[in-house]
Design goal:
- Helices cover about 70% and strands about 0% of the residues.
- By secondary structure, the protein is mainly α.
- The longest helix has 27 residues, at about 110-135.
Length: about 290
């Protein structure tokens, strides 16, 4: 991401945390970042556009920290604990900004709706990947119930940390949650619990990429999306590339996806050096040749 654009985002997040979104002006954001108000509009169309980008940046930073924890190649339980801890540590860093985001009525339109949907899908696949790595096939029938309960544990601590301002030993949270997850899973298995929700009951979009080298494909798509947010390009071009990713995800999710459509979508990324690796990985995972 362009250095000046990053400075603006960091400055805006800081001011929003202190003053609130509605009470912070574009001029104040620019001044805090040491950049002219005119330069602000080189990167953002409006304050609504700015907050949507800031939230995307925040989410990208969390994803990168979780991915870094995953790359340590620890045993599954320890890996999940480390990933949760990375998430919690970042929450503490930007706690005030998150409180502002949750409490203020901010109208930021379709961009943020798409981000929220993306977060839901990726969160589901992230939890599923970790749960299956820990418990294997024995949890198959109770997979969705286990995902829901893990999500509940994480969200519960998120609320107490961010909204209720409760301090706790951050480094212990991840391992503690994983132990509680063990208790939940072992309890369900011991009692031969019948699943409340099965994979058949959930929306198709949640399972769209499962069964197609799904974990790797999902991870590659996330990396592609993350790299796009960091490109040194104007906002319009970045937004266009993000829309292409959404169309790519829709096409991949279809039972019978169209190779020629995917080739056309991937062509948008092939000529951008920073995106070439992910572009080639996606084509390989789907068994589709890139257009020359």
């Amino acid at each position: 991401m362009n250095e000046k654009k990053m400075k603006l985002i960091e400055a805006g997040m800081k001011l929003f945390a202190v003053k609130g979104y509605h009470s912070t002006s574009i001029q104040e954001i620019a001044t805090e970042a040491g950049i002219s108000k005119g330069a602000f509009y080189l990167y953002f169309d409006s304050k609504e556009d700015f907050i949507a980008t800031a939230l995307q940046y925040f989410y990208t930073q969390i994803s990168e920290r979780i991915d870094k924890a995953k790359q340590e190649k620890l045993p599954p339980r320890e890996s999940l604990a480390r990933q949760i801890t990375a998430f919690i540590n970042y929450l503490y860093t930007y706690k005030e900004f998150l409180i502002m985001s949750l409490r203020e009525n901010i109208s930021i339109g379709q961009n943020i709706d798409k981000l929220v949907h993306q977060m839901k899908m990726e969160n589901y696949h992230w939890m599923r990947e970790n749960i299956e790595a820990i418990y294997g096939n024995k949890i198959n029938d109770l997979l969705v119930d286990t995902i829901i309960q893990l999500e509940g544990l994480i969200n519960g601590y998120f609320k107490w940390i961010v909204i209720d301002d409760i301090h706790m030993e951050k480094e212990k949270v991840g391992a503690f949650i994983v132990r509680r997850l063990d208790d939940v899973v072992n309890g369900m298995l011991t009692r031969n619990e019948e699943a409340l929700i099965t994979i058949k009951n959930i929306p198709d979009s949640y399972e769209a990429m499962m069964g197609k080298d799904s974990d790797e494909l999902s991870e590659t798509l996330l990396k592609l999306q993350t790299k796009i947010t960091k490109l040194n390009m104007d906002y319009t071009k970045i937004s266009q590339l993000q829309e292409v990713v959404k169309e790519l995800e829709k096409e991949i999710s279809k039972t019978e996806h169209r190779p020629i459509m995917i080739q056309g979508l991937l062509a948008h990324f092939k000529q951008i050096p920073e995106l070439k690796i992910e572009c080639e990985q996606i084509s390989e995972l789907l068994g589709i040749e890139l257009l020359n």
